[in-house]
């Protein structure tokens, strides 16, 4: 009988000892980022007899509470907290698992520019699909990838589109003579260094607007748009309209501060492809752009309305690029120009918002992460673009996941297959940037549990002591 008492009490001591271990682990991690508290669940041991006193207790399971932890603001861009369901997806650097999972969003950039945990596991997400995306509607890949913020969108982009939103003064004087006699603007030849000639007017334009553009190597150039007021046309056949001539050149400033003409048309001869006629109706609205066949001491001859495409070749780009033999590289540059927002109202010239889509090489200077997990990278070239969307994972039985330490888990057979989604999708939570989710341990509650478990331990020990006293009493009879 004494032996049975001792065994039952010993099982209580063992169970209470395990419970105290769980409590101490919870208290030790009460400030750990992403930590989830555990609790010990006890069950009686099967005795096998109807009137048996029982065989003591055992630890039935140790379960985790995956409830929400406290989210505290840190102000650090690479800190991220999940508010709601889900785990961050990480590449397993040990390669033992395909991926591992965590609620700890204390991230960093490694030496190669990858977004990683403090332990070096690369954060996984869905990269921007540039083939299907527009600036207004980013589309992300469906395949998981590591997020390399140092390289994404760092490659320069040549200017390929421009949009002019300018009001030209409708009261400006005529500056081009349609009859064939030069008024104030003769066509002169500006020699581009080392190559063909670039065409330009001689004389001040009615309006001049320079715009910085970029070649495919990230080199900056100045695209000069010279606007010359033409005449009001009323031929009795077509509706009355006002004509303007716009002429383009590209200039650069060398190391000595000298302005040089670096752009020319890629075709030789008399092609005047860099000169267009803009037509406006009597209400100041834009009608269309017409490519000029010839300008000079001859009448202006317009082709059909066209979508202007400026074509240049950049001689000796400022980036210092050279061919394999060390010679300079000529870089072709084609720019589609949109004049649809142009107007011609009386009063003054007004540049309302001319834009171009090129940019130079940029270095990462910061991040913005939205509630939907979309990471927007800010680069030194002034661009701010979405580059990836964080992936979140969930499991049917989170308590069955394999614990790896460091608030990291792995998929197991019992947990069920991983369920991947994006923040705010398929029941997943949101991502709070500049914040961390701290432990969900209730310190006060754990102290109460510790007292209760301590009493269980002491009571079980007292049973053993009492059993020994009874045994000694029997032996003394």
From TrEMBL:
Show the GO cellular component annotation of the record. Answer: bacterial-type flagellum basal body; bacterial-type flagellum hook; cytosol
Name one process (GO BP) from the record: bacterial-type flagellum-dependent swarming motility
Q: Where in the cell is it found?
A: Bacterial flagellum basal body
Q: One Pfam match, by short name?
A: LlgE_F_G_D1
Work out whether the entry's keyword set contains Zinc-finger: no
Domain of life, per UniProt, equals: Bacteria
Q: What are the Flagellar hook protein FlgE/F/G-like D1 domain coordinates in residue numbering?
A: 81-151
Q: Where is the signal peptide?
A: none
Record domain Flagellar hook protein FlgE D2: where: 207-359
Give the protein family.
Belongs to the flagella basal body rod proteins family.
The protein depicted here goes by the name: Flagellar hook protein FlgE
Q: Which organism is it from?
A: Thiomicrorhabdus xiamenensis
């Amino acid at each position: 009988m004494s032996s049975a008492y001792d065994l039952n009490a010993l099982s209580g001591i063992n169970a209470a000892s395990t419970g105290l271990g769980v409590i101490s682990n919870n208290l030790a991690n009460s400030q750990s980022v992403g930590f989830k508290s555990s609790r010990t669940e006890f069950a009686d041991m099967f005795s096998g007899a109807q009137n048996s006193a029982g065989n003591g207790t055992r630890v039935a399971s140790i379960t985790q509470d995956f409830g929400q932890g406290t989210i505290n603001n840190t102000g650090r861009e690479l800190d991220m907290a999940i508010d709601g369901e889900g785990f961050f997806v990480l590449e397993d650097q040990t390669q033992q698992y395909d991926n591992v999972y965590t609620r700890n969003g204390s991230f960093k950039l490694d030496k190669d520019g990858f977004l990683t945990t403090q332990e070096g596991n690369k954060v996984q997400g869905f990269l921007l699909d540039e083939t299907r995306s527009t600036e207004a509607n980013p589309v992300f890949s469906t395949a998981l990838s590591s997020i390399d913020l140092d390289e994404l969108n760092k490659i320069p982009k040549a200017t390929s589109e421009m949009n002019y939103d300018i009001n030209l003064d409708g009261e400006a004087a005529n500056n081009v003579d349609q009859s064939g006699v030069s008024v104030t603007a003769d066509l002169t030849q500006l020699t581009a260094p080392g190559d063909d000639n670039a065409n330009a007017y001689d004389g001040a334009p009615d309006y001049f607007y320079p715009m910085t553009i970029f070649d495919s190597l990230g080199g900056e150039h100045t695209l000069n748009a010279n606007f010359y007021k033409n005449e009001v046309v009323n031929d009795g056949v077509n509706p009355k309209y006002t004509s303007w001539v716009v002429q383009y050149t590209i200039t650069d400033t060398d190391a000595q501060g000298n302005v040089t003409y670096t752009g020319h048309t890629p075709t030789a001869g008399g092609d005047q492809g860099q000169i267009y006629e803009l037509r406006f109706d009597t209400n100041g609205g834009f009608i269309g752009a017409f490519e000029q066949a010839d300008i000079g001491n001859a009448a202006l001859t317009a082709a059909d309305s066209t979508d202007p495409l400026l074509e240049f070749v950049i001689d000796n780009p400022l980036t210092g690029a050279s061919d394999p033999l060390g010679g300079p590289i000529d870089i072709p540059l084609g720019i589609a120009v949109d004049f649809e927002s142009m107007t011609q109202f009386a009063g003054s010239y007004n540049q309302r918002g001319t834009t171009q889509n090129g940019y130079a090489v940029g270095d990462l200077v910061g991040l913005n992460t939205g509630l939907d997990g979309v990471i927007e990278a800010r680069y030194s070239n002034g661009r701010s673009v979405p580059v990836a969307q964080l992936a979140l994972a969930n499991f049917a039985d989170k308590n069955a996941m394999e614990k790896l330490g460091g608030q990291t888990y792995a998929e197991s057979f019992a947990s069920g297959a991983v369920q991947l989604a994006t923040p705010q999708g398929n029941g997943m939570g949101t991502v709070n940037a500049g914040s961390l989710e701290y432990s969900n341990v209730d310190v006060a509650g754990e102290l109460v549990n510790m007292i209760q478990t301590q009493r269980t331990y002491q009571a079980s020990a007292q049973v053993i002591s009492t059993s020994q006293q009874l045994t000694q009493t029997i032996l003394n009879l």
